[in-house]
Structures are given as structure tokens and as C-alpha cells.
């Protein structure tokens, strides 16, 4: 395919394609490796999912290529943190597990779809693939997700411009009989092609309908719908939400009505700069040391990150919180105080 200007295709899938075009590996849809001689008769539609343990967690054992630098490993772990904080999917260093994922720096950015059984490779070439969004795109493949625009119901959402597609890649636009899990089509999915993917002439290969200007693809990482789909596919019993925009509002469920008791994690991941969080209202039942109902805020995307606001309850508005970068994690515990109104907050991005 003809190279297209970077400004037109800076979504994650286009970044993947740009790297993979340099190699001859035979793949489907640009970045899906083809399994050889493995039986998958026990799986649905040929895709195998990872098993869920009795404790409700889906554990994926993995190894990391020793070629990755500490900085690259930190990017890969950072990509994994979002799954671990917001879904029931957990990654753990492989010890003796038979089925596991080998993260390697091989020829391009690619993965298999679902669990293949045994050791399976996921390639993140050092030059070009070790970016949060690309890591998450390939991890979503191993969880069993396909490319969003090949959903069986895609004709209602995108128009495929076959005349502009490189004929060698017609098959990359084939609809798949995947279960859509009752979720709505997600233009912002990390699994969506870009508007110019597989173009033979530099013109668009797909356009959103009815509004051609709808932004498609994903620039930074998982979308909030991607998270919801993982939780649905794996039946995760977790409450979580992801806020990937420059600014937005978040609040405890049903705020300010009394709610069912639950614990919830909110992750703010802005596209750049620092996260500012301001509470607009706050009313959590008081307990000694706020051991029952509380809000706790972390300067990062994991609970091991520095604490910006330690367990807080009562009715006093907490101060404005500023993260050191674009990530802020908010832990809301209310399982012991089902009648408390909760909180509402606003976040935005800034540099000072
Ligand atoms: Zn892909």
C-alpha cells in the first residue's frame, strides 16, 4: 500500500501497520498471526478465552523478552495496569504454567487471537511497537478480541470503500461472526482500523456513517467501551470506569441518590500533561479513620503509586488534587455505607 501522510493516520492501528509493512510475515488483517496445527475445537468460533479462577480473576501468565530495556518493560507493565485496575484480567510472571504469553521483540507488532494453548508469542518490536496503545491492542487480541470495524453489524456504522483498498488486503475487511456482547459499536475502540488502513492510493478505505467526520481509531490506549467489553466478555464482577478525555465529570453511581453498596475504581488517563481533579460535592458516611466508606486518590495508575489523598470521608470537600502526570486513580469504597450520597468531581488537563 502507498504510504499516507502521518497526520492522516496517527491512530494506533495505523502505527502498527506502518511498522509491519517492513516485514514479510504472513498475517491476517495486518497484525494477527496465523496459528499452525493447533486444534481449537473446544473454543467458540475458533477463539479460545482464558479461564477464570474461582476467585473471579482471569490470570494470564507471561514472560518478557530480556531484550526489553527497563524503560520498555515499564511501558508494557503500564499498559497491563489498566486491565488489572479496571477489569478482572490480571497478568502474572509465568512460573510453570503451560499456557502463557511470551512478549518478544520480534518482526513487528502482532499477536494471535485468543489463547492458542501452550506458549504463544506476542511480538512488540523494540523499534516502533513498545507504546501503551500498541501493547494494549495486541493484548486485546490475546483476550479474544478482533478488529472493531469487522463486526457483523458494521454496515450500519462504517462504509467500506473497496475501490481504495489494496486488493491483497480485501480479506482484512471481511466481516466476522463475532459476538458483539450486546455492546454498541465503538468508533473509538483501540481495535478499530484507521480511515486510511490498507489504502492502495492514499485515499480513505473506510468512512463512518452517517457522519463522515466522526473521529475513529484510538490515539492513546483502551477506550472506556473497550474496558466494558472485557468485563462483559469475561464476566468480571468489577465496578470500574476509564476517563480518557482531556476533561470530564465523574461521580459515584446514582449520585446523589443512595446507592447499592459497592466498591469502584476510576482511572483518569488524559492524552497529555497533568490531571487536575476538583470535587464538586462530597458526602461519605464518617467512620473512625475512614475505615468504612472512603475515597482515596493515587498519583498514577496503580495502588502502589504515591497517595494524593489518603482515605477521606465526611462532608468536607477535599482540596484540588494535581497528579504529576496524565494518570490518576480514584478508589471509592462504599460497601459498608449503602445510604451515603457519594461524590461528584470534575477533572481537566493542565500543565502548571
Ligand atoms: Zn490488530
UniProtKB/TrEMBL annotation:
Q: Its Gene Ontology biological processes?
A: proteolysis
Q: State the compartments where it is located.
A: Cytoplasmic vesicle, Secretory vesicle, Cortical granule
Please give the superkingdom of this protein's source: Eukaryota
Q: What InterPro entries is this protein classified in?
A: CUB_dom (IPR000859), MetalloPept_cat_dom_sf (IPR024079), Peptidase_M12A (IPR001506), Peptidase_Metallo (IPR006026), Sperma_CUB_dom_sf (IPR035914)
List the GO molecular function terms.
metalloendopeptidase activity; zinc ion binding
Q: Cofactor binding mode, per the note?
A: Binds 1 zinc ion per subunit.
Major enzyme class: hydrolase
Gene Ontology CC, one term: cortical granule
Q: Which residues are noted in the entry as Zn(2+)-binding?
A: 137, 141, 147
Which keywords has UniProt assigned to this entry? Cytoplasm, Disulfide bond, Hydrolase, Metal-binding, Metalloprotease, Protease, Signal, Zinc
Q: Where is the active site?
A: 138
Q: Where is the CUB domain?
A: 239-350
Q: What is this protein called?
A: Metalloendopeptidase
* The gene coding this protein: LOC102355791
Amino acid at each position: 500500500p502507498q504510504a499516507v501522510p502521518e497526520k492522516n493516520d496517527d491512530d494506533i492501528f495505523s502505527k502498527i501497520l506502518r511498522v509491519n509493512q517492513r516485514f514479510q510475515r504472513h498475517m491476517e488483517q495486518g497484525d494477527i498471526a496465523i496459528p499452525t496445527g493447533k486444534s481449537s475445537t473446544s473454543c467458540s468460533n475458533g477463539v479460545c478465552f482464558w479461564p477464570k479462577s474461582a476467585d473471579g480473576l482471569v490470570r494470564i501468565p507471561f514472560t518478557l523478552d530480556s531484550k526489553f530495556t527497563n524503560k520498555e518493560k515499564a511501558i508494557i507493565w503500564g499498559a497491563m495496569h489498566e486491565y488489572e485496575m479496571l477489569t478482572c484480567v490480571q497478568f502474572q510472571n509465568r512460573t510453570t504454567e503451560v499456557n502463557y504469553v511470551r512478549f518478544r521483540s520480534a518482526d513487528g507488532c502482532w499477536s494471535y487471537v485468543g489463547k492458542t494453548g501452550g506458549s504463544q508469542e506476542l511480538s512488540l518490536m523494540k523499534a516502533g511497537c513498545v507504546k501503551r496503545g500498541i501493547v494494549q491492542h495486541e493484548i486485546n487480541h490475546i483476550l479474544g478480541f478482533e478488529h472493531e470495524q469487522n463486526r457483523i453489524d458494521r454496515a450500519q456504522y462504517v462504509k467500506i470503500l473497496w475501490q481504495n483498498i489494496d486488493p491483497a488486503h480485501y480479506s482484512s475487511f471481511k466481516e466476522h461472526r463475532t459476538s458483539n456482547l450486546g455492546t454498541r459499536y465503538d468508533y473509538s475502540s483501540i481495535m478499530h482500523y484507521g480511515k486510511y488502513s490498507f489504502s492502495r492510493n492514499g485515499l480513505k478505505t473506510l468512512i463512518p456513517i452517517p457522519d463522515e467526520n466522526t473521529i475513529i481509531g484510538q490515539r492513546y490506549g483502551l477506550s472506556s467501551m473497550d474496558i466494558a467489553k472485557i468485563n462483559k466478555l469475561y464476566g468480571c464482577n468489577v465496578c470500574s470506569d476509564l476517563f480518557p478525555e482531556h476533561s470530564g465529570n465523574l461521580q459515584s453511581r446514582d449520585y446523589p441518590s443512595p446507592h447499592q453498596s459497592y466498591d469502584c475504581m476510576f482511572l483518569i488517563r488524559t492524552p497529555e500533561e497533568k490531571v487536575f481533579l476538583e470535587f464538586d460535592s462530597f458526602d461519605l458516611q464518617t467512620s473512625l479513620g475512614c475505615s468504612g466508606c472512603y475515597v482515596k486518590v493515587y498519583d498514577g495508575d496503580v495502588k502502589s503509586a504515591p497517595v494524593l489523598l489518603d482515605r477521606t470521608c465526611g462532608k468536607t470537600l477535599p482540596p484540588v488534587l494535581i497528579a504529576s502526570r496524565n494518570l490518576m486513580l480514584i478508589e471509592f469504597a462504599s460497601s459498608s455505607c449503602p445510604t451515603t450520597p457519594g461524590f461528584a468531581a470534575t477533572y481537566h488537563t493542565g500543565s502548571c
